[in-house]
Amino acid sequence: MAMREIRIVGDPVLRTPCEPVTDIDARVRSLVEDLLETVDEDGRAGLAANQIGVSLRAFSWNIDDEIGYVLNPRIVELSEDEYQDGDEGCLSVPGLWFPTKRSWYARVEGIDLDGKKVVVEGEELMARCLQHEVDHLDGMLYLDRLERSVRKKAMKAVREQL
């Protein structure tokens, strides 16, 4: 296992949709170990594989003292009538937080290292994490979801950091 370096906004791997995991081999097992170790640090809620430079559909989470992972996640349900609009941040956009509208509830399905179906669901912070990490795997950053006026300010702040 290894604590991996986080890729920062501007790195093309963050804008490239990730490939599905097709073979659960030693490389994928090592990736999961690295995702779990790298997310296991105070202030980290989630980590997508492309944030550590691997373009495979996998992410880990660290919410309310629960650490886990899912391979080939896909969002299968979002609350349609309840939303949250709190500040959101990202390890790949360090130090910047902006109000981001997300569904209050989210449900993700995928598989584990044994190829068995995994269901991860939650409200509030867990829902935000699930949506945020699946966005990463689709090549999106939370900045892409910001309202136009907020996004303009956010992009200026990002440019000032680079």
UniProtKB/TrEMBL annotation:
Superkingdom as given in the UniProt entry: Bacteria
Annotated GO biological process: translation
Keyword Lipid biosynthesis: no
Pfam family, one: Pep_deformylase
Example GO molecular function: metal ion binding
The enzyme's E.C. designation: 3.5.1.88
Record field: catalytic activity: N-terminal N-formyl-L-methionyl-[peptide] + H2O = N-terminal L-methionyl-[peptide] + formate
Cofactor: Fe(2+)
Cofactor comment: Binds 1 Fe(2+) ion.
PANTHER family: PEPTIDE DEFORMYLASE, PEPTIDE DEFORMYLASE, MITOCHONDRIAL
Protein family according to the UniProt entry: Belongs to the polypeptide deformylase family.
Protein name in the entry: Peptide deformylase
